[in-house]
């Protein structure tokens, strides 16, 4: 690139075209100007580059190109038309995936893969495998997706986590789904370390990776590490973390505290997550935040406030919610009715939830619905139906990674039932299983909302 890189002495028209290319590529990748900005190139400065009002330095230009996944020659318009179109094919396919145009994306990516393999182009081969893996994952073909994404990671030099977050995050998610939390933890730890070592760290991506790392630790039963990595991510740059990333972190912290029975802290963080989501135009996220708040309030016995948040969660689902989304709300409505002593309504809601969730790949929530049914039958003295529902609850919850507290609760209720039935030995076994599942490191979780980084964040 030579003289261009040294001088960057562009005409007004050249600057306008450069800005248009950057804007086009950024939008193709569904990135905001804030997403693309970095230390030395704020989003306001980037806006002026895109409008053709500012001339980027060689360092800034190279960094923008890296973040967009193209060469500086392509940004400057110095690559041949064939090279440019071939390089943009993967970006087009990624946009098709976001628009759920899976057939078109797969066809385009298979063509890219064939060309890349003929040309021995490792980078493009890796990108094509990644795209095909994402298509497979969106279609629910997890094993095929895992193999394709592993090929993407193993082909050529491992890409930087800042450049290809979808590859690493989807791969870690599939490891977790496959029960391999140790590999997910190792992968996410490596990504977090590489992001922290990068000059001008992208804090939004750092939080995104950290959330999945925290989930991996929680699934492995290491709640202390799960909370600590989230607190560390928040401390890394409280003033610069965007609202969505901050809300997700609070949401995850609330889930973590709820998982270890620390209801007061769970409610406090759920409240903070909800407050931020209310500032954003995202009904799905806001519905989930209301649902999380209601769950924590029910755990704390505050049925009146829980009912208000459940009503809000349901209303935000709209007129055509998915069976899974509606099922999650109905499960909590069943728990609410049981807490209020309305057995008939609790049983009806629990049956509705079982029907909604039975084939939705949400064994934890399905188990919660069975547990409500079991407790209703138990209170009504219908012992055979109660035992059936208790065992169904335990079986379902056992299939949900990270739900040790919920499984322990199911075993405790089952143990109480067995004791009342005069089956002392079976009851003792159930109580022992519940004790074995109790978290042993609750005190090692992240600081409570009243101290440290949390109070700093909420003043923003």
Describe the structure.
There is one protein chain. α13 (203-219) packs parallel to α15. The protein starts with a helix and ends with a helix. Among the domains are: 3-79, 434 Repressor (Amino-terminal Domain) (Orthogonal Bundle), CATH 1.10.260; 340-438, Tetratricopeptide repeat domain (Serine Threonine Protein Phosphatase 5, Tetratricopeptide repeat), CATH 1.25.40.10. It has helices at 3-7, 12-28, 33-36, 43-50, 58-68, 72-76, 81-98, 102-118, 122-138, 142-154, 165-177, 181-197, 203-219, 223-235, 243-259, 263-277, 283-299, 303-315, 323-339, 343-357, 363-379, 383-398, 404-420, 424-437, 452-457. The protein has 25 helices and no strands. It has 460 residues and is an all-alpha fold. Mean pLDDT is 82; it is low at 1-9, 80-86 and 440-460.
Q: What is the percent of helical residues?
A: over 70%
Low confidence ranges: 1-9, 80-86, 440-460
Molecular shape: elongated
Output the CATH homologous superfamily of the domain at 340-438: Tetratricopeptide repeat domain
How many helices? The count is 25
Distance between the termini: 43 Å
Sheet-strand content, in percent, reads under 5%
Q: In CATH's first tier, which class of the domain at 340-438 applies?
A: Mainly Alpha
Question: How many beta-strand runs?
Answer: 0
Order of helices and strands: HHHHHHHHHHHHHHHHHHHHHHHHH
């Amino acid at each position: 690139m030579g003289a261009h890189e040294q001088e960057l002495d562009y005409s007004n028209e050249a600057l306008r075209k450069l800005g248009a290319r950057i804007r086009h590529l950024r939008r193709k990748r569904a990135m905001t100007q804030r997403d693309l900005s970095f230390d030395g190139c704020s989003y306001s400065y980037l806006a002026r580059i895109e409008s053709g009002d500012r001339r980027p330095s060689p360092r800034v230009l190279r960094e923008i190109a890296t973040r967009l996944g193209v060469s500086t020659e392509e940004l400057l318009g110095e690559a041949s038309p064939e090279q440019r179109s071939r390089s943009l094919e993967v970006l087009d396919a990624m946009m098709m995936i976001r628009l759920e145009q899976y057939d078109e994306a797969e066809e385009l990516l298979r063509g890219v893969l064939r060309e890349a393999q003929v040309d021995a182009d490792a980078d493009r081969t890796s990108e094509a495998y990644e795209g095909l893996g994402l298509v497979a994952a969106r279609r629910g073909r997890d094993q095929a997706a895992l193999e394709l994404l592993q090929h993407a990671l193993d082909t050529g030099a491992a890409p930087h986590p800042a450049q290809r977050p979808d590859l690493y995050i989807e791969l870690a998610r599939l490891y977790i789904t496959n029960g391999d939390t140790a590999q997910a933890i190792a992968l996410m730890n490596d990504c977090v370390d590489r992001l922290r070592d990068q000059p001008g760290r992208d804090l939004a991506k750092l939080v995104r990776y950290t959330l999945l790392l925290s989930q991996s630790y929680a699934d492995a039963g290491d709640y202390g590490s799960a909370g600590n990595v989230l607190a560390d991510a928040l401390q890394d740059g409280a003033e610069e973390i965007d609202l969505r990333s901050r809300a997700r972190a609070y949401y995850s912290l609330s889930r973590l505290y709820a998982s270890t029975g620390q209801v007061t802290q769970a409610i406090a963080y759920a409240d903070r997550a909800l407050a931020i989501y209310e500032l954003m135009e995202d009904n799905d996220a806001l519905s989930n935040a209301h649902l999380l708040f209601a769950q924590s309030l029910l755990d704390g016995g505050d049925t009146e406030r829980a009912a208000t948040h459940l009503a809000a969660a349901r209303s935000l689902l709209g007129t055509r919610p998915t069976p899974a989304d509606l099922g999650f709300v109905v499960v909590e409505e069943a728990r609410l009715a049981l807490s209020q002593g309305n057995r008939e309504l609790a049983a009806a809601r629990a049956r509705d939830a079982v029907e909604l969730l039975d084939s939705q790949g949400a064994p934890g929530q399905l188990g919660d619905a069975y547990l409500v049914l079991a407790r209703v039958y138990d209170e009504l003295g219908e012992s055979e139906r109660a035992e059936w529902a208790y065992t169904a609850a335990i079986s379902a919850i056992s299939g949900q990674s990270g739900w040790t507290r919920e499984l322990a609760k199911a075993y405790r209720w089952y143990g109480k039932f067995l004791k009342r039935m005069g089956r002392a030995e079976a009851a003792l076994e159930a109580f022992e299983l519940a004790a074995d599942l109790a978290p042993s490191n609750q005190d090692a979780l992240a600081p409570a909302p009243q101290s440290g980084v949390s109070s700093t964040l909420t003043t923003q």
